[in-house]
């Protein structure tokens, strides 16, 4: 195994532990927003799409990269926006007032 | 240090900053008070990572990004703003499907470029095929979850004989073909077949799962997309993708387990066994039994003169879009000095926490929403429990009947209150197809009809009560 691959596997495994630990005590009320937020975070794959798009040199690769960038961006922007909307409702609920969607 | 080196360092540092922001964001998302802040921290992390990527040495042409990114961003933002909160779970499923497709496309495109240039290693090929397969499965799996929740297709389990064996064979075929591709024996033809097989697998893997279990499916495909993202990071040698993808893969898996636990279903039984399939005889064989009905006027009087009222909202409430009518009744009762709480089962709605979101949207104060344990402690001392569009989560069979398929599931003990009133659309069994013992109890009254209409009638009757 190459040095890079070993390091990549280390990072991969350590991230699993961090992912487990960091949300271990989440209450049930936040399950839906948390799922939505993690859904937005895996939109980081958009970066991969950008890297591929940034040096795609054949029409086929360019086509694949274009679709990937569009879908990845929809995942990221939509994901964070919908999570924010959800959590905004909680805040409005706490204050028991209207005016949730001020954006 | 050359200019190119400086650029590399800046990108690397930005990725580290983004990683820290993601972890802190996830931590803050675990507490109601800081959740919104957490989401914003993660969004800032994403922004930092995106800007840094524009400086990446591999990005030499910008036109695809310049056109594609704004299109995707607008698509995402507009749908996120427009979607009704009741339709939120399927929105998340769609966004997740988009992410899965992205991971699959990136894996395959990068592999094609590398093998075209003659520098594709076996490990890279293996990672690329893995990313392609997981991403594709997540993509069609998400689309099926979307279609079931959006009711574009039947929510009941769809399976054919040998379904599981078929899925297993698809997976084995993907692995065998993937091995040929990564060792350089197979080429583009194999990649095409793998893609097709994986897309089919995503569909045949999720079709046999009933609509009631879709939240778990979304949680599973969410962590699958995280995993696909991390694997894509290995294809691209990009630590940012590996870390962020795996954070989601791991937290998504934990979330899946927490949800299954709340539903008292093992993950294996969700993924490999249909709900209610084995219990069909129990559910349909039951003889028609007598229930006692009530009227909106009687109910209004009972509510108005109660000391303590608990409201149990279920998905039927959200389907009828009657949260506001319910909150109006709640307000009326509070004004009369009645102690009103909303007892929320962990899996009420279509995802855990979904009901809290829906009630918050209807301005139900946060402190009136109580969770299972707290609600159950108060039921014996509660005068009226108003059950709106909930069924399986108040079925005492889960506590008493060892033969029931939901035996052992934590339920809200509505039957222990002095009076339980069930607002129900029709006389059919619940989503899980199981008869509900509660409906035949002596202290239970039924009010049949559309929840919105019934609640409006109760609110009207309350004015004169």
Overview of the structural elements:
The complex is a heterodimer of chains A (103) and B (465). With 103 residues, chain A is mostly helical. Chain A has a domain at 28-95. Chain A is 76% helix and 0% strand. In chain A, helix 2 (31-41) packs antiparallel against helix 4 and helix 3 packs antiparallel against helix 4 (59-95). Chain A is flat, with a radius of gyration of 19 Å. Chain B folds into 3 domains: 1-60; 86-272, no CATH class; 284-464, Rossmann fold (3-Layer(aba) Sandwich). Chain B has 465 residues and is α/β, with parallel strands linked by helices. Chain B is elongated. Chain B has helices spanning 3-28, 35-54, 63-82, 88-117, 122-149, 163-182, 188-206, 214-236, 239-262, 267-272, 280-285, 296-304, 315-319, 323-335, 354-361, 372-378, 397-400, 451-464, and strands at 308-313, 339-344, 369-371, 384-388, 419-424, 444-448. Helix content of chain B is 61%, strand content 7%. Chain B has a 6-stranded parallel beta sheet with strand order 3-2-1-4-5-6. The longest helix of chain B has 30 residues, at 88-117. Chain B has 18 helices and 6 strands. Chains A and B meet through helix 1, helix 2, helix 3 and helix 4 of A and helix 1, helix 2, helix 3, helix 4 and helix 8 of B.
Number of strands of chain B: 6
What average pLDDT do the residues of chain B reach?
88
Compute the number of helices of chain A. Answer: 4
Segments of chain A where pLDDT lies below 50 for 5+ residues?
95-103
Span between termini of chain A: 50 Å
Q: Which oligomeric state applies?
A: heterodimer
Structural class of chain A: mainly alpha
Specify the overall morphology of chain B.
elongated
The tally of helices of chain B reads 18
Number of spatially distinct domains of chain B: 3
With strands numbered from the N-terminus, the spatial order across the biggest sheet of chain B is 3-2-1-4-5-6
**Shape of chain A from CA axes?**
flat
Helix proportion range of chain A: over 70%
Mean pLDDT of chain A: 85
Decide which structural class fits the backbone of chain B.
Answer: alpha/beta
- Radius of gyration of chain B, taken over Cα atoms and rounded to an integer in Å: 26 Å
Strand content of chain A: under 5%
Largest interface, and how many residues on either side? A-B, 89 and 118 residues
Largest sheet of chain A: none
């Amino acid at each position: 195994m190459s040095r890079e691959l070993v390091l990549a596997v280390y990072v991969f495994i350590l991230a699993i532990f961090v992912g487990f630990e960091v949300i271990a005590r989440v209450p049930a009320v936040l399950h839906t927003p948390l799922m939505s937020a993690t859904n937005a975070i895996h939109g980081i794959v958009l970066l991969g799409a950008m890297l591929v798009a940034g040096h795609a040199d054949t029409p086929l690769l360019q086509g694949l990269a274009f679709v990937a960038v569009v879908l990845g961006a929809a995942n990221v922007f939509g994901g964070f926006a919908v999570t924010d909307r959800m959590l905004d409702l909680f805040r409005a609920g706490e204050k028991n007032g209207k005016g949730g969607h001020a954006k | 240090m050359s200019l190119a080196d400086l650029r590399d360092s800046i990108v690397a540092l930005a990725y580290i900053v983004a990683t820290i922001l993601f972890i802190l964001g996830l931590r803050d998302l675990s507490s109601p008070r800081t959740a919104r802040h957490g989401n914003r921290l993660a969004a800032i992390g994403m922004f930092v990572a995106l800007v840094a990527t524009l400086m990446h040495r591999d990005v030499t042409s910008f036109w695809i990004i310049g056109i594609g990114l704004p299109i995707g961003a607008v698509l995402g933002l507009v749908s996120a703003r427009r979607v009704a909160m009741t339709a939120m779970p399927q929105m998340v499923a769609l966004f997740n499907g988009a992410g899965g497709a992205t991971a699959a496309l990136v894996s395959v495109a990068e592999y094609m470029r590398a093998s075209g240039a003659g520098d594709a290693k076996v490990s890279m090929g293996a990672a690329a095929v893995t990313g392609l397969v997981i991403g594709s499965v997540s993509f069609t799996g998400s689309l099926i979850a979307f279609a079931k929740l959006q009711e574009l297709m039947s929510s009941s389990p769809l399976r054919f004989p040998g379904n599981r064996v078929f899925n297993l064979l698809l997976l084995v075929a993907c692995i065998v073909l993937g091995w040929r591709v990564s060792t350089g024996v197979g080429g583009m033809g194999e990649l095409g077949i793998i893609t097709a097989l994986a897309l089919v697998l995503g569909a045949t893997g999720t079709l046999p799962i009933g609509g009631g279990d879709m939240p778990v499916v979304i949680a599973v495909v969410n962590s699958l997309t995280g995993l696909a993202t991390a694997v894509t990071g290995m294809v691209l040698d990009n630590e940012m993708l590996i870390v962020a993808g795996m954070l989601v893969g791991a937290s998504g898996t934990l979330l899946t387990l927490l949800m299954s636990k709340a539903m008292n279903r093992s993950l294996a039984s969700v993924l490999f066994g249909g709900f209610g399939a084995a219990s069909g005889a129990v559910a349909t064989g039951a003889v028609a039994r007598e229930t006692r009905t009530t009227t909106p006027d009687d109910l209004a009087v009972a509510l108005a003169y109660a000391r303590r009222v608990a409201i149990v909202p279920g998905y039927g409430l959200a389907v009828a879009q009657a949260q506001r009518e319910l909150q109006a009744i709640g307000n009326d009762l509070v004004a009369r000095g009645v102690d009103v709480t909303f007892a929320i089962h962990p899996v009420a709605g279509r995802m855990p926490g979904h009901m809290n979101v829906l009630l918050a949207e209807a301005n139900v104060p946060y402190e009136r929403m109580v969770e299972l344990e707290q609600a159950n402690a108060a039921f014996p001392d509660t005068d009226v429990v108003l059950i709106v569009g909930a069924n399986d989560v108040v079925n005492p069979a889960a506590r008493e009947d060892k033969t029931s398929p939901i035996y052992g599931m934590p339920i809200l003990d509505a039957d222990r209150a002095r009076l339980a009133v069930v607002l129900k659309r029709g006389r059919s069994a619940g989503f899980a197809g199981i008869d509900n013992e509660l409906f035949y109890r002596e202290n239970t009254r039924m009010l049949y009809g559309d929840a919105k209409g019934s609640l409006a009638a109760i609110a009207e009757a309350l004015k004169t009560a």
